Give the backbone structure.
Amino acid sequence: MASMRIACACTRLLRRQNQLKFITGERHKGYEISNQDLNKRNRSLIQGFNPRRAVLYVPASDEKKLKKVSSIRADCIVLDCEDGVAINRKKEARDNIAQYLPDLLQASVSELCVRINSISSGIYKEDCEAVFNGVLPPALMLPKVENWQEIDEFFKYCAPILKRKNSNLMSFIIFIESALGLVNLKEIIESTISYSATSRLRFEGIVFGSDDYCASIGVERSENSIELLYARQKIVAHAKAYNLQAIDMVYINYKDNAGLQAQSIEGSALGFTGKQVIHPSQVPIVQGAFSPSDDRVKWALELIEAFDKHQNEGTGAFNFHGRMIDMPLLKQAKSIVQMTQSLKSTGS
Ligand code: COA
Ligand code: MG
């Protein structure tokens, strides 16, 4: 009787452990993330992240727009093979990238990036073949990621090719643009960090694809984007937790500069580090909203100095311009100074 009770208790315990594994997703994981991977990320990203305030799309099938790339000072220009390109012009887009990229790399002041098609499109390998065969772009974007299995498939395909090519490190940015992608975000990030630690692709950011997300949750975009608030905040929180950039949604009314400015300021206030743009006229407005103002930089530098002085005198919290200052505000001030230094080092 006693042994029966023990057997039942063991079964209950095992069932409970399996339930927990299911809840945390462990039973499904095909990747490992170590503290070492996370620490390595912290160091490398703090030392050298390219600020991507304005991320401009150029449909790679459009030669007229490709020819304008070198005259545009965005932080990042995306040569797009995905949704900016009609299905029947994908090949043309790939051929154009191979043809234009070498010269654009010489002439452009912006970082150049290629957005390939999603894993679920079934045509991403054709994009990769075209991109990896020629001169490599400094950055690569993978849209519509929905689960870690897609990341697994992508890295298992790409990593050996880039290794054989002995390529330099390429920045790697993923898109979250569906309810499923949002729900699976932590696993997606952790699997990407894990693969990125041993490959030539350095995971640096997450882009929020708002229009696909609206379609996925079955809503229309409203004036104040209230239906997107949860997704935007979740993406920011996850990006910041793993030292990644968070790039906000597109403002599609590209002739409405006041609306763009308001949405950019809102995105910056939510914690995004940059925003996607579709027209060159949007670039300076977005860059302005995602750059610390001169007053803010002055505040940050003075605060850091005052903090050091008070620490040396043995005071933790102190009064600065009528506000209580302690460690969290010091961190904010340091991140403003760091952002300013990054912008200076890239000549932005
Ligand atoms: N990249 C490079 N050049 C661009 C550009 C872009 N994204 N958008 C516009 N231009 C150029 C135009 O070619 C035009 O050049 P020109 O003065 O030599 O004729 C100039 O800027 C002014 O453009 P404008 O006439 O105002 O716009 P348009 O009607 O040519 O294009 C869009 C409007 C929205 C179709 C265009 O901006 C675009 O294709 N954007 C990207 C869309 C995209 O990629 N979407 C998918 C990701 S969300
Ligand atoms: Mg999209």
